[in-house]
Amino acid sequence: MSPIRSSGSKATVARSSVSEPGSAPTLRVFSFLEAIAESRRSLSVSELSVALNVPQPTAHRIVHMLETENFLVREPGTRRYSPGDRLARLSLGLVSASIRSVPRRTILEELSEAAGETCNLGILVDRHVLYVDRIEAGWPLGLRFNPGSRVPLHCTSMGKVLLSSLPIDARRQLLMSSPLHKYTENTITDLDRLEEELDAIRQRDLAIDNQEFLAGVVCIATPVRSNGHDVVAAIAISAPMARMTVDSALAKAPLLKAAAEKIGATLAAQQKEQMASKRSESKHGAITK
């Protein structure tokens, strides 16, 4: 249960904050949403209870309320929970606002101009890739996926990159939770074969969608890491095969990886600023008390 820390700064903040009169119920609910959003797998009530140091009956009530309001959704056939549509929409709004800010938006624009094709940025939400930003190339023939669009994981370049970053058990559970739909003749629907490809993608930090989702469309993707390690998003270049073959897509890989590193650096800088701000607020609060 590594994505959720039952000790350390976050859990400590949650426990100290909920002790303040009047703020406890709201902050408790937010701590549950935060835990689910940050986890790379679905979580049970008991796991949330232990990780957040909340009594299990209280955890049951909060999870039930969040499920009723569609912030959480129960995984089919289990007692585990993952983000619901409302939490996904909230996350999309926050991420989009952040991603669209300079310089990350500028990095995507520069990549699209250098590559001469459309560039996409996506994150893993539930069982899909969620588009959070997109820069369209200035071609009359193009693809139309707006921010907020969802595409499959198993047959898209960004989806395969995001899948390859997951722990093997979590990845297999995710892949087995729904059918691997065959969108084109090139779609990989054999689980063992797909697992082999995902392992190779993890090694080279590069995934190709060779007309696996849409016939006549080629895409190439690489991961975005916030601190040099954790994969938080994927960035891709996509184009009709008439303009970009697999070989020409691979030739653009250095441009793609350089852009991913730049975006990752901006995320790391933002996280550092947020941590400094939290330390400052904590210090100020201690002084005023």
Describe this structure in words.
- α7 (about 155-165) crosses α9.
- The strands form two sheets. A six-stranded antiparallel β-sheet has the order 6-5-4-9-8-7, with helices on both faces. Strands 1-3-2 form a three-stranded antiparallel β-sheet.
- β4 (about 120-125) and β5 (about 130-135) form a beta hairpin.
- The protein folds into two domains: about 10-85, Arc Repressor Mutant, subunit A; about 95-270, Beta-Lactamase (2-Layer Sandwich).
- The longest helix is centred in the C-terminal third of the chain and has 36 residues, at about 255-289.
- It is α+β, with helices and mostly antiparallel strands.
- Residues about 1-25 have low confidence and may be disordered.
- It has eleven helices and nine strands.
- The protein has helices at about 10-20, 25-40, 45-50, 55-70, 85-100, 105-115, 155-165, 170-175, 190-205, 245-250, 255-289, and strands at about 45, 70-75, 80-85, 120-125, 130-135, 150, 205-210, 215-225, 230-240.
Key features of this structure:
289 residues; alpha+beta; Arc Repressor Mutant, subunit A; Beta-Lactamase; 2 domains; 6-stranded antiparallel beta sheet; 3-stranded antiparallel beta sheet; 11 helices; 9 strands
Helix and strand arrangement:
Layout: H1 9-18, H2 24-38, E1 43-44, H3 45-52, H4 56-68, E2 72-74, E3 80-83, H5 85-99, H6 104-115, E4 118-125, E5 128-135, E6 150-152, H7 157-164, H8 168-176, H9 191-204, E7 207-210, E8 217-225, E9 231-240, H10 246-251, H11 253-288
Antiparallel strand pairs: 1-3, 2-3, 4-5, 4-9, 5-6, 7-8, 8-9
